[in-house]
Amino acid sequence: MKNRPNVVVIITDQENSNTISCYGGQLKTPNIDKLARNGVKFNKNYVTSPLCVPSRASIWTSMYPHQFIMNANLNRSNQIHVNDDGRETELPLDAITIGDLANKNGYLTGYFGKWHLGRENSSQHGFQVFQTELRGSYEQRMEEEKKIIFPKGYSRLDQQSMESFEFQEDTRMTDLAIEYIRNVRNSENPFFVVISLRFPHDPYTGPFNDLLDHKKLTLSDNIWDSLERKPISQRRGIGRDIFVKEIGKIKNSEGENKLRKIYARYLGLVHLVDLNVGHVLNELENLKLKEDTIVVFTSDHGDMMGSHELFFKGLTMYEEVTRVPLILSWDTHIPKGREVNTLTSMIDFTPTLLDLMKIPKPLSMMGESMRQLWDYSHNIRNAIFIELFESYGEWGPIFSIRTESYKYNWYIGDNDELYSMNNDPYELENLADKPESRDLIIGLREQIARWLIQSGDISVSQMIRTYPGKKPNWVSLGDKN
Asked: Nearest to residue 444, comparing CAs of 411, 380, 412, 400?
C-alpha cells in the first residue's frame, strides 16, 4: 500500500485569490507561497458554484450542483444547489466522494473542521475519523470547559475575535489533524486527511485584527460600481446592504478608509490560515513525510470584499467570488514552481487527486485529471461552467460560462451579463445589451445548453424551486439602493 502517496487537503472558507502574496496579494503569506514554490499553482481556477455548500459537494464528488443521474448502471446524485441556512441540506449518502474511494482503496481517512454538508455529528462518506463542530458549538464548549470566559452580550460569531490564535477553532482542528497524522504515519496504509478551516469567512474578525496598517492597503479598481445595466438582484441582498451601511453609496475617502479597515481584518484571518498551513508543512517535514505526501491548498469560493460595492457572496459571478486559489505540491513527483495559466475548474479537483493516488475515477464523476496540465501543458478546458441557484434568500438561477476571452452570465429572470475579460478584467462594463453582442451571446448560450445536457440536464422543477419565505427575484423586481 505504501506505493501510494499520502494526501493532505487544506481548504479554507470564502477566500479571495487576491489575498495570497503568490497570487499578487498585499499580505505576506510565506507558508502558502512556499507550497507554491514547491509545486503547481493554478492561476485561473474556478469553483462550480460561488456558495459554500454546493461548491463543497462538487469538490468532493466531481459532480455539478444540479446533477441527478439515474440509469441501469449508474445511480448517483449530488443535487445540492442551495446553502443550509436553516434547512436540512445534506449530501446524499449515495453520492460517491473522494473520501469513500480513498477508504475503499485502503487509505486511512480523517476529516477535521468544517464539513457543511449535513449530518455534522456523524462520520460519513468514507472518513473513519470525523471531527467537526456545529456552528457556534466550539465557542460554547470552550466556555463550558472554562478555557475561555467570554463577556456577556456577544454572539458566537463575535466571540471569534476574543480567542487567541492558540484557542481558535481552526488552530485546534489543525492540531487534531497533525496528531492523527503522527498516530498513523507508521502504518502500512497511506493516509488521506482533510483540514477544513472556517476562515477567512465573515464577520472578518479574529486575533490579528491589528496586524496590518490599513492605511497602506490598496483597494481594487472596481470598488465603486454604479451597477447600471447590470442585474437588478445585485442592488439587493445582504452583501449590498452591508456595503451601503458600512461604506456608503458615494465615492469618497472616508468610505474607502472604512473599507481598508475591514479589508485589513479580512487579511488578518488569512494570516491565521497561513500560520496553520505552515504548522502542517513543518510537521510533515519533521516527520520525514514530505516526499511521500501530496499537499493541496484551496478554498470553496471567494469574497467580494467591497468590489462592485458588495460584500460576502450573493447572486453574482464576479471573479472575486468565483476564482479561488489552487496549489498542489508533491516533493520530487510534481514540478516545482510550475504555473498553469489556462482555465481550470474545481470539478477536476477530485479526479486529479484520484489519478495521483492510482484510484480509478468512477463513471459518476464529471471532471478530468489536471495532471496533464503540468506534465504535457495540454489545455483540457476551453470553457468552464459555474451555476448558482440561491444566495441569502434571493433566488437566481444563474448559469455562467467563462472562456479565455469572455464571461457570460445567463440570469434566469434578470438582466444578463457579458464581459470582455481581456479588455475589462475588472468586469465594469456589461456588454450584454449591446446589439453587436447578440451573436456572441447566442453561441455562449448554446455552449451552456450543451453542458447542461451532457451533465444530466436540469429539470424545470429545479429552475423554479423555492423554499418557505423565499421568493424568486422575478416575483418582485423593485429596485433597491
From this structure: 400
